[in-house]
């Protein structure tokens, strides 16, 4: 199953050097999740040939413009292009108010069902679950209510080793084997031992999105060992004071968190407009955590099972 | 003095074929006026090297997203880039509500004074005046409150013919001559006859912006003879029924209005996403009014004095 992140934008505050505002697409199987939606996101989706009609969930971290001003236009385009599939938007308090007021003045009644899920950004809790994944909030520390998101695949079924499977097993028995059960006979004795005919399940992949926030170690238990951590790195560490003052992080801090949380890979983004060349940010982070990459527009990061 | 229109976008409803949503910059002297502000306008301003800090007035025709969803981001960027110059926004009822709610949730307090001027879109009236120009509303007929805008230079002073000017004239007397007065002696007799020492003033230029609207002849008296008319032409005339139903116009209708209003030049825009090639729209309009042009992104139309 596909588990892939696509970067649509990674500029903080003001768009600059052709870097667009924050937006990412996380594809898990057939499901597209949009994470944040800065201005111009619908154009970026077109540019990278991502079909917006396939997006089923939108996650908005906070109500600063560079993270959600593209939402109005995207919803409007979905409506004008005859979307009928329901859409769920997860966001902080206020987002529903803002959208409702705009619908009122534009006299808009969408063709599709729009479900708002208002988030408590101060806690770590599950906000979404389907057959394959769960999504939890990650409390951030920013100037307004803000949370990150942790996407995690659910535990997967064990693999059946076909060469070792007896012929007499029925489909329900195969399901039980996949779920880790032994197959018993009528008297309760083990007929087929699970470990003899199955192998370990594929691992469950995970992605943590942390933006915008001050450096914040108390989220480490939640993101421990994730396959991919996106963490904002608005500034270089020589601007640490400014980072603290504006409730942002430095590249060094992002890498330190990645190191302490023992994540597999780090992606930094939300770059300040003062950095035309992003190499110093990358180098600063890599000095602490080598497997760091820049969240450049158009970049795709697939995570293998 | 410069009188120049720059097209930043001309796509209707949904952005398509790299055509952005409606936005235009009308430069009159040192003053930049932004007319409508679709999503991505701040990026288009950057692309065409228009300094947003020089914009003093923003005119929003109506509250459909393709005409104002870029406003939030542009204002935010003005604020983040330390604007201190006051800004006036002219727009229909509701715009102030929408912006105020966003400021509340993003906890934003702008560095610069933002003045909202709520428009009555149903009447033709003056909404702005300075030393050089006036701006009037043009009532449109659309699905929500909507008006166009008529920009007109004020009558200009007469030119002094230096070779014919007597030496003895004082600066106040020269001003009176420019204003068309004769210069009298102490007894009230004509000392210098105006027409002997001055020539006709430069003409006053004008620009009418009409979007979005059904074909509407009752605005002809207001736009009669303007130098440049921008009129929406969402559809070809073979979709007239759809144009009427959606409160839009066809290219033929735009040209018919230009012809009847005896304007000097017509610019058509607000193209439906169904037209990848815009040539048929241009040809349809030119068949009725030859001096028609497409409102293509990046195009600049200067009007000479």
UniProtKB/TrEMBL annotation, chains A, B:
Binding residue positions for Zn(2+) 1? 62, 64, 142, 212
List the cofactors: Zn(2+)
Q: What is its EC number?
A: 3.1.26.11
Name the source's superkingdom.
Bacteria
Is the keyword S-adenosyl-L-methionine assigned to this protein?
no
Keywords from the named record: Endonuclease, Hydrolase, Metal-binding, Nuclease, tRNA processing, Zinc
Gene Ontology molecular-function annotations: 3'-tRNA processing endoribonuclease activity; zinc ion binding
Q: Name one Pfam family in it.
A: Anti-Pycsar_Apyc1
The record, for NCBIfam families, names:
PRK00055.1-3, RNase_Z
The UniProt entry's sequence similarity note says: Belongs to the RNase Z family.
Record note on quaternary structure: Homodimer.
- What does it do? Zinc phosphodiesterase, which displays some tRNA 3'-processing endonuclease activity. Probably involved in tRNA maturation, by removing a 3'-trailer from precursor tRNA.
User: Know the name of this protein?
Assistant: Ribonuclease Z
Protein's organism: Adhaeribacter rhizoryzae
């Amino acid at each position: 199953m596909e588990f892939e992140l696509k970067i649509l934008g990674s500029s903080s505050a003001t768009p600059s050097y052709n870097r667009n505002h924050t937006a990412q697409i996380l594809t898990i199987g057939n499901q597209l999740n949009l994470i944040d939606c800065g201005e111009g996101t619908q154009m970026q989706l077109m540019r990278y040939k991502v079909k917006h009609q396939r997006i089923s969930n939108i996650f908005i971290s906070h109500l600063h413009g560079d993270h959600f001003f593209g939402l109005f236009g995207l919803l409007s385009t979905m409506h004008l292009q005859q979307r009928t599939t329901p859409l769920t938007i997860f966001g902080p308090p206020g987002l529903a108010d803002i959208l409702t007021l705009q619908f009122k003045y534009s006299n808009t009644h969408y063709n599709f069902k729009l479900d708002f899920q208002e988030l408590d950004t101060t806690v770590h809790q599950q906000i979404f679950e389907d057959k394959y994944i769960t999504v939890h909030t990650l409390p951030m520390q920013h100037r307004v209510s803000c949370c990150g998101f942790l996407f995690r695949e659910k535990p997967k079924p064990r693999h059946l080793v076909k060469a070792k499977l007896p012929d007499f097993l029925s489909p329900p028995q195969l399901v039980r084997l996949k779920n880790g059960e032994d197959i018993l006979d009528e008297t309760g004795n083990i007929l087929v031992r699970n470990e003899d005919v199955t192998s370990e399940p594929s691992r469950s992949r995970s992605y943590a999105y942390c933006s915008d926030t001050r450096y914040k170690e108390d989220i480490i238990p939640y993101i421990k060992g994730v396959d991919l951590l996106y963490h904002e790195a608005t500034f270089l560490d020589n601007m640490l004071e400014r980072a603290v003052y504006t409730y942002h992080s430095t590249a060094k801090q992002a890498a330190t968190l990645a190191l302490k949380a023992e994540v597999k890979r780090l992606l930094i983004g939300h770059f300040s407009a003062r950095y035309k060349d992003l190499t110093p940010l990358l180098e600063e982070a890599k000095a602490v955590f080598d497997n760091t990459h820049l969240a450049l527009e158009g970049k795709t990061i697939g995570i293998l099972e």
